[in-house]
């Protein structure tokens, strides 16, 4: 089993679980390359976050993460593990908005890396069963991390992140609370559940609620942010 032991030693050295043997320049170079790759991936995934933290402290946390938190077999998933590691270990707690900011930046990576099926354009109808598309994510934030210079502004912010199939990139939109609640209910139980939820909360008739939401829902369908529920006929 000498080959297996050699491979195990390589991984242990790369992740700082055992020291580099003295004078072994090959392992020193390998360790450097692995660390550099982690820094590169995390810097690319979190460019805004890394601008707001001390570089030396960031390096310390990345090394600790490599030793105790990195498990994902695919490098593109490492930033999400890093985000979880920071939250669990309470790193960078001096930044109250750190978790919202990391979510904001990671969501772009996550949506870009999904495999999407070709989307067909269709007209909106209340008769059809709709759900939130896998190309979209809803989030209630406590800090305004989607606006440069306002990260520390505390409040309730309702955000929609979505992949644009025409422009091949991720966009974010701040939503008014009624639309956020409608889409959240839509995701949980379909369009009729969403309609009933808003009617109950607003004391409005279904006709009035439909008239209010039909224009934005028509646009969201055209952007494939909502879609016909594939589990319904």
Describe this structure in words.
- The chain has 233 residues and is an alpha+beta fold.
- It has eight helices and five strands; from the N terminus they run H-H-H-H-H-H-E-E-E-E-H-H-E.
- It has helices at 2-14, 25-45, 47-51, 55-68, 78-89, 98-112, 177-202, 206-222; strands at residues 130-132, 136-143, 154-164, 169-175, 226-228.
- Strand 3 (154-164) and strand 4 (169-175) form a beta hairpin.
- It is elongated, with a radius of gyration of 23 Å.
Furnish the topology, listing elements before pairings.
Elements: H1 2-14, H2 25-45, H3 47-51, H4 55-68, H5 78-89, H6 98-112, E1 130-132, E2 136-143, E3 154-164, E4 169-175, H7 177-202, H8 206-222, E5 226-228
Antiparallel strand pairs: 1-5, 2-3, 3-4
Average per-residue pLDDT, rounded, comes to: 87
Q: State the separation between the terminal residues, measured CA to CA.
A: 56 Å
Order of helices and strands: HHHHHHEEEEHHE
Instruction: Give the number of helices.
Output: 8
Share in β-strands: 5-15%
Question: What does this entry show, briefly?
Answer:
The protein is of the alpha+beta class.
Give short descriptive properties of this protein:
single chain; 233 residues; alpha+beta; three-stranded antiparallel sheet; two-stranded antiparallel ribbon; 8 helices; elongated
